[in-house]
Protein 1
Amino acid sequence: MRNYASSSRAFTLVELIFSIALGLLICYAAFATFRLTSGTVNRAKQMSLENRLLRVGILRALEAADTWAMYDDPWRATAQPLRTTTDSNPFRPLPNTVNLDLTSTAPGNWWRGQPVGNNVSSTAYGCYPLFSGLARLGARSTYAKRMQGLMDTLGHQALLDYAPLNSVFMYFDASDAIPAAMQATNFLNDPTQKILYGFNDLGRDIARGFRQLTWARSFLITTDKGLLANGVNHKYFYATYQAYLGAANNQDPAFDLNEATQILVAEQESLTTPKPAAWPDLNLSVFNNNILTVTLRNPVDGTVSTMHFAVGVTTTLRGARQQRGLDNAALATTGAWQPQLPWSAL
Amino acid sequence: MNARAGSILIIVAGLTAIIAGLCLSLLAFTRVDREEAVVLRQEVQARIMIYAAMDYVQETSRIGWHDPASTGPVVDTYGWIDVRDGRPGPKGPDGRVVTNSDGTPVFSPVADDGTGGSFFPAVGGRAARCPMHLLQRPPSAVSPAQVTNPVVDAGATTAKRTGFNAGWAKAINYTEPGSAPAVSATDAAFMKSVDYPKSPLADADATRIAAAWRIGDQRPVMSTMGQAWFRVYRPTPAQVQALPAFDGTTKSIRWTPAVFILAGGAGGTLGYQTYAEAVADGRGDAFQNDPAFFDQVRARERILWYACEWSPAANVDSLHFYTVDSNWAWPSTNAPMIVSNNQRQQNRSFGGSFLWIQRLMTEPKSW
């Protein structure tokens, strides 16, 4: 019985082969299942990380738009290139000659002039510098001093930001003439021959509103070291929509705002430096503190995710300057608000 | 018991445990992602509320208030700084301080400086609190249902009114405020009888339906309750001057009667600043009459604070001249858009605009 029993617990060669094959199959299936599952989990982790970084990027972009910190870092004096006083720069302290009382009822805040034909040498329709301008006294100079102070100190982008929506962007200077910066074309080219500077490309003495000034163009702000070193002055800095204007309108055909958006004046910030090698690269780009771009590059599979969005309601330039107390001198001389009757004398 | 069968069971059980562990890990990641995404959703929701708050400032500069001297319940007003006398508004057409629906002036007509009222829009009055849940049908809503917009040829007398002769010209010549001129009862009956079966004009229920829609169905959509709110506060000069700059200094903002402090929130406090404020409104029950519960809800909220200054400036397009045969021309307002550099839509924001907007990085003392 013992011999029989021992022989009954043995197995044949066929059984051995089948059992080994089945064992290998089970092991392979187990390994494949484990590999697939762990791969799925790893991918899920990667996607989770990417989603988390994108969320961080969006939140950072919104905060950057609210603080303008990519243009002027309030906590690092070495990251404040737009406070330089050699040119017009949007983060220079505002001089106390600028009156910041923009109450619409104050007669000193009203522009006096013609829609067209404001050249002092041609007074067929009247000589309006007699009523308002830098050469006049008291409230008759308020409008001109504000326009001049904002333009010469902060530049045109700031001028558009500060002035009420229905402002007329023109004033008469100390010699009763329209300043060249608000009348004539002033084309200067940077070394790339692509950047245009100017305020009134038609070279006429017509009064312009916000819509006309920004038609097919956008006034810009940049901290690009190369551009600033090459003489970009925010007093005149703008780009045009080449698709609308074309070379026939005396615009540089090689340049348009899309190019500026993508290449020239967008502020860049890496949000993942330093980082583990396998982590995605997260970059933030801000154009004119309005168009925000969050870009995610995955070093593992090379995929790039880009999200563009514009912030409609965010801190304006004047708001950003108030966050930094840059208007305090002008506010001190402007004084407290008082009711101003619209029929009071200038 | 077969030893080999047992070993297979152990292997399978082990594999199943590993896979289950990995799946649980995946679910845990997904859950964490979802929870973290709530932060972003609340941030966006709070920003949308700031949009709404700014719309509120613009709209209430012109509409929504009552005038005791007027026969109508609501009057147009003249801005947060009245353009007629340069003093704080809103004031009605006769220059008097407007009233709330109960007839009380919104601020003291005697002082006439914006102060003296308990609630918004008085300077220093309690903020306007606007929980932003959806209503089943808001007052004066417009149905997206399409019905015939009748253009009647008033001069035609035949039964077949197939053309748009004099009536059409009248309808599009810009002398009428809308595209549909007033329709007489005769015309309405005719339209209903001939080829305008969907015209609401002759419908016997039109008056009743219009009245019901004007009132609206103000029951809240429950799924939108406790999601978002905004507040608009009209601060005093001292409160504006106390708002800190980044470096902690003050007096970096100039007060005018048109400066506002906005709060946009994503969460369930219904826009109450404190539990005491909710109790004062008789809404302590919304928070289980428990200040600790209110604090718990507040802790889960995202709130953004901004300051801004309103301006009556309303015309974006303003001056834009062009030449026609060497003569200067000015585009007409509200002309239809054509493909041209010289003629375009003239948008107008009747609620005014904003001189500046500023994010307040810390909670202001008063909002």
Note: Confidence is low (pLDDT under 50) at residues 184-203, 243-255 of chain A.
Protein 2
Amino acid sequence: MRKITALRAIVGIAAIALAASGCTADGPANSDTATIGASLPLTGEFSQGGLDTQRGYETWVEMTNEGGGLVGKPVKIIVKDDATTQDTAVSNYNNLIAKDKVDLLLGSQSSLLNIPASAVAEKNKMLFVCPSCASPDMFSRGFSYIFFSQQAVASDQAKVFAHWIANLPPDQRPKTAAYPALDDPFAGPAVDGAEKILSAAGIRTVYKDQYPTTTKNFDSVVNAMKDAGAEMVVQGAQFEDGVNMIRAMNRAGYKPSIVFQSSSPTYGQQYLDGVGAQNAEGVFSSASYSPIAKTADNAEFVKRYEQKYGTTPPEDAADGFAAAQVLAAAVNAVGSYDDQAKLADWLRANIVETVLGPLSWNADGSPKGEFLVGQWQGGVSQVVLPTDVATTDKILRWQGGVI
Amino acid sequence: MVSLVQTLILGLQVGALYALMASGLTLIFGVMRVINLAHGAFAILAAFLTFTLWRNLGMDPILSIPVVMAVMFAIGWLVYVLVIRHVRGAHVSMTVLATFGIALVLEGAMGFIWGNTSTAVRTSYTDASLSLGPLYVPQAMLITAAIAALVIGGLYLLLNYTWTGRAIRAASTNEGGALLVGVSVATVAALTFAIGVATLGAGGAMLSTIYPFLPGTHYQWIARLLAIVVLGGLGSLPGAILGALVIGVGEMAATNYLGAAWPVAVPFLVIIVVLITRPQGILGTRLREDAVA
């Protein structure tokens, strides 16, 4: 009897020990490490941006660890692939929080994925700094832990460009415009914002339509814009659709004098490879970043990125790096990440210097600044507007000709 | 009127690419009764092979077509021997699952080898056009149409004027009868699968010159290709050509006259309409199991 009781006690203790060790195994691998979790579209339609963002995150982790870590702890990042699907992004963030028990979160890539993913962070009261979530829908839900680490939301993305066009002398200003846009929470508002300003300036809308993410063939869209006689094209694009559009415009011999694309041209060398340098010449884009900007840590970031990946950092990589800078600024200022409401409060009250420039936020987490306007010139992505931060004073029409 | 003619030109040209890609799918179904869900993934694989030959060896995509077709033939044969052979006589759901599995493996392998980033082949003719007054004819698509005519014409000659073709048609029409007259149905099936994948090699090569591609895009292609062969009649080569041209023109017309959101719906609408009104497709024939008892 005594033997049986002892055996039960041993089994009981063993069970408790196993349960306890199980809890430990589910927790952070090492409490002396600051673990950051993120889900990114490493495969699927948005993989181009997702992979670049991952590189930005990883470059930041490497540089931060060399500089002593985050609040004295080495940083580890867990990145999961969401395959450009919303359900997987949600599942990934749930797993990062519940199973991996990460200390901090960084956002996914694109508003499409961040809108549902950020709801998981909000429910768990965790700070969610997203590098690419410009849709106004992100900030209309009364959330208090969500911050977008670029300069402006999508509806203001083409604002500087549109005001510049609207203020051109009448003989240089296009009279008609076409607005094709990806059916996406980011691309649509970017085009709507531009159209509002340009229409008010008397530039007539002759074509406006949205296409799904699966659209491959743009010949017919281009045919319709050409038939409508659009002198300017303002496209709300991600990556592949922007490349396809330029190629279809070339095939059709359609040469609008002004071409603006919201994201595609910011993919650096990949964009040039996709459309060809001569076809990129003069394409405008809204830009959050310039590799030659004299912003916080940018020179070091560019140097390290080039060493690691053999290419100049594209915008999404810089956006990822900047998101991590924002997260780190809040954690370092508060002194810990135990109370993430404090981190959010700190961000709402302060300005953070990043590789994109200084960033600050409204109460809803939307940024307060304005986007830069970039343009491809001679195979180099230049900042052309606003003029006080421009890297060149020359502004071109599409495929050549100074304005 | 100009707009309508331009829409027709673009639609027929896109349809030619679709026909080139769908011909192998319908051939495989016609002979083996296998719905090859990996067909889109094989197309993307051929596009990546073309890209590799173009980037590393400077080989023009048109000149690389025989090489790509040969490699795809070998891959098709291998996949048949390793996977399809074991499920060929099984219920259709087994072949669907098996080929879907092949598609996923191919997608993963392509992502591992070439990465999951958008890739494109650009040559002097990829973005150029011929002008015909107010109309334009994209050169890459015109070349694609010519290659489609050559490859599909070659396939037609092979099927109708060679012993191999007769064996394939015999196995397709009556497998038991073919066995009785000495046709090795197993070898014919392997050959058919390999030929189907090889013709797709030409389609994938030309696809790479017209559209950017990445491993995950095969889902979009298989949906479209299935709609084409269902419309034309599963197993019918002329039906696949007709279906491809109808879908191509339909997509272009939908974009032009209904809106850019509609072309994606066209293939699915076609499948629904065909299944309701003419389940055997335009040029398909009713199978014995379709008959009402």
Note: Chain B touches chain A at residues 3, 6-7, 10, 14, 111, 115-118, 120, 122, 126-129, 131, 136, 138, 140, 211-212, 214-217, 220, 251-252, 255-256, 259-261, 263-264 (CB under 8 Å).
